[in-house]
């Protein structure tokens, strides 16, 4: 699978390669943002900037992580050409 991704990556134009890198970057941005929202109290001593209970904060983090994987799978399904 990784070999096929590498071959497909080499066949793409520079514009398609750039969009591929941006897609991967935003997957990691949403994933990291979701993890930061969930573990805010463990990472930073100050309170979360938006007033919300821990249940809502964890729910929001899970939604961000699910959205990142949704983007990831949708991106790779459209890039298999």
UniProtKB/TrEMBL annotation:
Keyword Transmembrane: yes
Lineage summary: Bacteria, Pseudomonadati, Bacteroidota, Flavobacteriia, Flavobacteriales
Sequence intervals crossing the membrane: 18-43, 55-73
Record key words, sorted: Membrane, Transmembrane, Transmembrane helix
Record's protein name: CPBP family intramembrane metalloprotease
Organism name: Flavobacterium cellulosilyticum
């Amino acid at each position: 699978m990784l070999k096929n991704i590498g071959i497909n990556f080499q066949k793409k134009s520079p514009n398609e390669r750039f969009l591929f890198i941006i897609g991967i970057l935003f997957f990691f941005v949403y994933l990291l943002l979701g993890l930061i929202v969930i573990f805010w109290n463990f990472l930073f001593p100050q309170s979360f900037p938006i007033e919300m209970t821990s249940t809502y904060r964890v729910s929001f983090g899970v939604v961000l992580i699910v959205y990142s994987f949704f983007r990831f799978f949708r991106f790779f399904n459209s890039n298999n050409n």
